[in-house]
């Protein structure tokens, strides 16, 4: 049995807890958070810890807290043998270099409190301070997910930034369209099949080849008709993304 | 049997042909294109027509050609009784006002030559010059799709513009991330589950509530770390979308 302590009570900690608890070869022995009230998701109350000095010996410590709080927490955590990892996309592995065994266990996914995700599908990005520790992390990752990747700190930062583009920014485009539909008495529902197909398409095509639309066709008539319909803020976004599509596809405005 | 003539040989015409041909209550009697070579997708060669004067009497004429070509084609098309519709998101219904019975049959989806789509799932946006014609279009639409909506020309234009945001622009964000991953020796594969979840999330949440990320959290440290990693063009896109997220969610930069 691999003994695991989870540190944190946010969305990532909660989803890690749920997925790790279901795995027979893993024993989640404790979940730590300064405020015990946020640990309701931990079924057995005896596993909830709010005093950092009461954290027990474990094989793996998963730190799933806000980026800014990681280094400070690390100074307070007493660990003898286990591997200490954080789960952040943007923090360098070195944030944990005061430990003998350390690394990163970054699940690349967007987690929400009220939406379950299939952890098996989530790519786990791994990094460790030694090959031995990396092998252990790979083993643990393989128990909870079908996909793991060795990713160094610079690459992980690039991934985290890419995630902002594909997740945060796309979702914002959906939100802008939702607003715009509402202004025009249209249900956002009408757009859902298109959004679904946008993603389904890139399962077989790369995004470059999947591109369509007035920007790609350099259809100036449609582009200027669209710009006429938009307010200043949306016009800026429309223009900059249209230019970027044309630049990527080698067209001049 | 509803007799249908399809005009055009592009992606929309091809997908309409495929879906309409499968429906027992519809008889696709002809598919017209000036250049017959592009009509290979029409199984029966006798249905292929390249001379507009040879178009037969039908109940419905579906014009699925480039926006700019619709009005000119309309002047050459001889129709006695049938309803003439175009399938464009951005053209006004009036482009067909020289006919007695006219309207719009706009399938809101992105079509590619080599990717089949489930037409039943595609929302069909309908408009007609009379209630009677609208009812006929609704009936035809219900034969090929489970979803149809009555949408006037102004709303349709707004939908078409929304489609650019949710489809063209999101896909471009995926393309930018793909490029950026490649520059960092990362496979785009790692991002696919995240992209899938981005869309899966908005099946249960509205996009406003589904928003996450450094812009929403107003996490200036991460935002400036990200900006430091980006070239000028990507930096512009990152900045404008970050500002837009913060504006929509009532945060000041």
TrEMBL record, chains A, B:
Lineage summary: Bacteria, Pseudomonadati, Bacteroidota, Flavobacteriia, Flavobacteriales
Provenance organism: Christiangramia echinicola
Gene3D superfamilies: NAD(P)-binding Rossmann-like Domain, ProC-like, C-terminal domain
Protein name: Predicted oxidoreductase, contains short-chain dehydrogenase (SDR) and DUF2520 domains
Domain of life according to the entry: Bacteria
Stored PANTHER family: CONSERVED HYPOTHETICAL ALANINE AND LEUCINE RICH PROTEIN
Ranges of residues in domain Pyrroline-5-carboxylate reductase catalytic N-terminal: 3-81
Domain DUF2520, first and last residues per copy: 122-245
């Amino acid at each position: 049995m691999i003994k695991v302590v989870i540190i944190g009570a946010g969305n990532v900690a909660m989803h890690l807890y749920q997925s790790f608890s279901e795995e027979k070869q893993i024993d989640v022995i404790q979940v730590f958070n300064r405020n015990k009230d946020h640990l309701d998701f931990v079924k057995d109350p005896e596993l909830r810890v709010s005093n950092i000095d009461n954290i027990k010996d474990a094989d793996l410590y998963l730190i799933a807290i806000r980026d800014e709080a990681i280094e400070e927490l690390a100074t307070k955590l007493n660990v003898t043998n286990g591997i200490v990892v954080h789960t952040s996309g943007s923090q360098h592995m070195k944030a944990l270099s005061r430990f003998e065994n350390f690394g990163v266990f970054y699940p690349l996914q967007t987690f929400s409190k009220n939406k379950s995700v299939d952890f098996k599908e989530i790519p786990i990005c791994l990094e460790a301070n030694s090959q031995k520790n990396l092998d252990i992390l790979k083993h643990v990752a393989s128990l909870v997910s079908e996909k793991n990747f060795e990713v160094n700190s610079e690459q992980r930062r690039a991934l985290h930034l890419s995630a902002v583009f594909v997740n945060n920014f796309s979702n914002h485009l959906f939100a802008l369209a939702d607003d715009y539909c509402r202004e025009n008495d249209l249900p956002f529902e009408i757009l859902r099949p298109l959004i679904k197909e946008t993603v389904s398409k890139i399962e077989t095509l790369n995004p470059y080849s999947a591109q369509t639309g007035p920007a790609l066709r350099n259809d100036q008539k449609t582009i200027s008709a669209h710009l006429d319909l938009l307010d200043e803020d949306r016009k800026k976004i429309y223009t900059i993304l249209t230019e970027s599509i044309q630049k990527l596809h080698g067209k001049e405005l």
